[in-house]
Amino acid sequence: VQLQASGGGLVQPGGSLRLSCEAPGFGLKHYAIGWFRQAPGKEREWVSCISGTDGRRYYEDYGKGRFTIARDNAEKTVYLQMYSLKPEDTAVYYCAALLGGWGKLSNLNAYEYWGQGTQVTVSS
Description:
Blueprint: E1 4-6, E2 9-11, E3 17-22, E4 31-38, E5 45-50, E6 57-59, E7 67-71, E8 77-82, E9 91-99, E10 113-114, E11 118-122
Parallel strand pairs: 2-11
Antiparallel strand pairs: 1-3, 3-8, 4-5, 4-9, 5-6, 7-8, 9-10, 9-11
């Protein structure tokens, strides 16, 4: 499964971005999808995930109330909508997939497939 993350860019503090994760020619139904991010000089950290079985959503504390993860109706794309962005949200954002995954999958080693990452820069 080849994942593609897109939607990153430069945004001012307080702005919004919507990231997309898709697998061209391949659906994401039944896959748990996780979003991670990695800032320069820091380890990759978990942001959010959506279950591949029951649709439950999970967020890291810094994302609660600001980030929303969701699937499109065709279950081909998973979005990470980000609001009220802060400079500390600046990072490369990656999506990852695990077939049949469920629960709060916050460990990057749990995932089978990864996308290439999309840069998010929050700066005035």
